[in-house]
Design a protein that fits this description.
The structure holds two protein chains of two kinds. Chain A is built from ten helices and twelve strands. Chain A is of the alpha+beta class. Chain A has two domains: 173 residues, no CATH class; 103 residues, no CATH class. In chain B, strand 9 and strand 10 form a beta hairpin. The chains are: A alpha+beta, B alpha/beta.
Chain lengths: 340, 462
């Protein structure tokens, strides 16, 4: 693995060089009190806080609302138009390792055969620059799902903050190409292997493994425990919409007398409408059964299909849940390891 | 409803305003008919849609018309006292007063939304109303609707720090104030469960991430898991209508003064029976959101709300009540020009991701299914584009007008920080001013938009 160093004060120059090379830089920044990945020109707008950015990067690969095609009736004819046109290469800057790992999970879903063209187009234009975590926040539990504050999963370049500079680890060729955009800013450097970096891993408290609980959870399918843990779920979509790996969507046609669109919108298994049949029957009739689906999809079904968990331990769902439901504690409770 | 062509012809030379008129069959439609048979000339820019009664005209229809490109909407029906169905127009008058207040607050130019009483004989008045409305629209130019576009950066509320209400009054609150309540609460819950007066107690417990989290206690020995502190912010009455809690009735539910008001709403609207729950009212000094006293607590003067079967702690009114800082923000917004207000709110709504957390946490959003989940017809577009988001946020606000008790849970949980509290509060102020009604007081009176008084103010009606 190649290692460089980049002076922090030169990040702006690097961003300018990336933009000059026709790339759009997406970084966490704050607007109206909302922290989100946004295209930026000015490095001073970047707002990196400990822990993951509240709104995940997911929206840039899998937008909340995506028009698949549109049509217009004109003079007795239907004019069909493909909507997705993306010209710019994009650089996702300062993702956390959990977010980068989440993109790898999304890839598993959307790029498996047959690949999803809309996702594939955006993904092929994206390079991911990750910033390792020098500090964890209380909601973090990446060690519990086999990741760490310095894991390289999904990253193209991996940055580590060290005084007034970054150690830059080249993880993929795509990442190396970003360095080559302005090679004079990067000096060849030396550093330990990423897993030897002084990360907060030893001090993190939430690291009881959640990686091999699939069978045990499935064995609990009929258990009354779900009523107990899922009863207070209110059925909003915050956990799914802020989750960097949740990827369910709804296909919707919207039209009037003259034109229309077909689009795909985020959807969420906590909504009653998610499984409502046309007959009126709902196979998941109450909130506990919907919560069970969420947990089992993340820790059992996905594991069965793709041999990995669908959770990266970012802790957003638990931190932003209106009623403080904490998926880490709940899985531990279900598997009989710990009581809240 | 016929779609109105929006794009090319709106920008062409010779633009003509489009006024959609929703009229009642018995009075205004007959009046318009009379104008026709008398060969009276008036603007052809009006498109008339006939309804059985103004009471049947849901604000949804008006929103739909704007969504599809109308430049203005006129609603017209019978004069008070003339309604074919006795009181349809009087109910409509209340509803439209609130709807108009909402649209004004959001920044729709007032001239775009008009109401009139035109009887079957008033052909001349009909002609006059239509012509004056069309002229007003012509002066305004094409509507900024169909909403679906943003123009420029929105004006800012300049951060909350400018609000003239500092947090000092509540700084006298000490941890002891909660601790005394907490230990009494545990004793009470233990007693209620041990004697079988309740099947379960729904209260706050310690969350794994330091927050308070709702917990259900069914065994008297678990009562010591209950906590009460400044983080106990959730409004637990939201669970009373949840199917998963039906088997736990009678349920003891821990309520703060504000939460207790939503019990009034649920009883008023027949959503819970009085015998299904016991309100355990905890004396609340105030709660904090993100380390700051919640806005609602700054003006709260009560420790115990209107419905309390068991009182835990002092029921003395609070001496710390001051002004609500939102009133200052609302006044600031109202000083802006309509275009600025519109820009501000469109920017707010454009962030909405339709997680429906605002609906999920609201104790008074209990409809099964919610109108947003009905798709035949699809009144509210499900897509999180601006058009769908405006529809959703408008109707959430309208359905809560006169019912919202101001617990601010919707605003607390919104992951994209939409200021729903400002909208809710603005409508509450309007309801109080017009109908002298304050929600969450008396379970025996009907909600204000489900009733009327013959002399309700109708100054906005032509």
């Amino acid at each position: 693995m190649k290692i460089w160093t980049l002076q922090k004060k030169r990040v702006g120059d690097w961003m300018a060089a990336l933009r000059a090379a026709g790339k759009e830089v997406l970084a966490p920044c704050e607007a109206d009190g909302l922290l989100r990945f946004r295209p930026i020109d000015d490095p001073s707008a970047i707002a990196v806080r400990p822990g993951p950015c509240p709104f995940p990067f997911k929206e840039w690969l899998f937008p909340p609302h995506q028009v698949l095609f549109s049509y217009q009736f004109e003079g007795g004819k239907v004019n069909l138009r493909e909507e997705e046109v993306l010209v710019n290469d994009q650089v996702g800057l300062f993702l956390r390792p959990c977010d980068a790992a989440a993109i790898k999970i999304l890839d598993t879903v959307f790029l498996s055969d047959p690949p999803d063209g809309f996702y594939q187009l955006r993904r092929s234009h994206l390079t991911i620059v990750t910033l390792g975590c020098r500090q964890a926040v209380p909601s973090c539990f990446c060690p519990a799902v086999g990741l760490s504050p310095t894991s390289l999963e999904g990253s193209d370049l991996f940055l580590w903050e060290e005084d007034d500079r970054f150690l830059v680890y080249g993880v993929s060729e795509k990442g190396d190409r970003l360095v080559q955009v302005s090679p004079d800013l990067f000096e060849p450097g030396e550093g330990p292997e990423p897993d030897q970096l002084p990360s907060p891993l030893p001090f993190m408290e939430r690291k009881e493994p959640l990686t091999n609980v699939g069978q045990k959870l499935q064995g609990l399918f009929e258990s009354d425990l779900w009523q107990e843990v899922g009863r207070t779920c209110l059925g909003c979509g915050i956990c799914a919409y802020l989750c960097p790996t949740c990827h369910c969507f709804d296909i919707v046609d919207e039209s009037d007398a003259y034109s229309g669109i077909r689009c795909r919108n985020w959807d969420c298994c906590a909504f009653p409408l998610f499984t409502l049949h046309a007959s009126g029957h709902n196979p998941r009739p109450d909130q506990p059964s919907r919560y069970r689906q969420r947990v089992l999809h993340k820790f059992a079904y996905f594991l069965q299909t793709f041999q990995q968990n669908m959770c990266v331990g970012c802790g957003r769902c638990s931190l932003f849940c209106p009623v403080g439901m904490d998926i880490y504690q709940i899985v531990l409770q279900l598997t009989g390891r710990c009581l809240v | 409803m016929a779609a109105v062509r929006t794009d090319s012809e709106r920008t062409e030379k010779g633009w003509e305003p489009k006024l959609i008129a929703f009229v009642c069959n018995w009075c205004t439609y007959a009046g318009a008919d009379a104008a026709g048979t008398r060969r009276m000339l008036y603007s052809p820019c009006v498109r008339i849609i006939r309804f059985p009664c103004t009471g049947r005209i849901d604000p949804h229809f008006i929103v739909r018309a704007f969504e599809q490109g109308a430049d203005g909407v006129l609603v017209s029906g019978c004069h008070p006292g003339d309604c074919h169905y006795v009181s349809g127009n009087l109910l409509a008058r209340r509803r439209f007063a609130i709807f108009k207040a909402l649209m004004d607050f959001l920044g729709l130019e007032p001239e775009r939304l008009s109401f009139s009483w035109v009887s079957a004989t008033e052909a001349g008045k009909w002609v006059e109303v239509v012509n004056s409305r069309v002229e007003a629209l012509r002066k305004l130019g094409p509507a900024r609707v169909p909403w679906g576009t943003l123009s420029g950066p929105p004006p800012s509320l300049n951060g909350r720090s400018v609000a003239p209400m500092p947090q000092e009054p509540l700084s006298q609150v000490k941890p002891d104030d909660y601790q005394a309540v907490e230990s009494q609460l545990r004793q009470l819950a233990e007693g209620l469960l041990a004697t079988g007066q309740v099947k379960a107690v729904l209260g706050y417990g310690k969350g794994s991430l330091q927050q308070a989290t709702p917990i259900v206690i069914t065994n008297a020995t678990e009562a010591n898991q209950l906590i009460f502190n400044e983080h106990c912010v959730q409004n637990l009455t939201v669970y009373l209508t949840s199917p998963s809690f039906r088997s736990l009735r009678p349920l003891g539910v821990v309520v703060k003064a504000c939460d207790s008001k939503s019990l009034v709403g649920l009883l008023q609207e027949d959503q819970v029976k009085r015998e299904d729950f016991r309100a355990i009212a905890v004396s609340c000094p105030g709660v904090k959101v993100n380390g700051r006293w919640a806005d609602k607590c700054l003006s709260c003067d009560q420790r115990i709300g209107p419905i309390a079967d068991h009182i835990v702690g002092s029921s003395e009114p609070k001496s710390t009540a001051g002004a609500d800082p939102r009133d200052w923000e609302i006044q600031t917004i109202e000083k802006w020009a309509p275009a600025e207000r519109w820009n501000f709110w469109m920017n707010q709504f454009s962030r909405c991701i339709r997680c429906y957390a605002c609906r999920a946490v609201c104790p008074l959003c209990y409809c099964q299914p919610c109108i947003a989940d009905k798709n035949r017809p699809q009144w509210i577009p499900t897509s999180p584009h601006l058009k769908g988001n405006v529809s959703w946020n408008l109707f959430r606000a309208l359905h809560l007008a006169g019912r919202c008790i101001g617990c601010d849970e919707c605003t607390r949980v919104c992951p994209v920080g939409i200021r729903l509290d400002l909208i809710n509060r603005r409508l509450s102020l309007e309801v109080a001013k017009r109908f002298g009604y304050e929600p969450g007081k008396d379970p025996s009176v009907p909600p204000p938009l489900a009733t009327y008084r013959p002399n309700d103010p109708g100054e906005f009606i032509l």
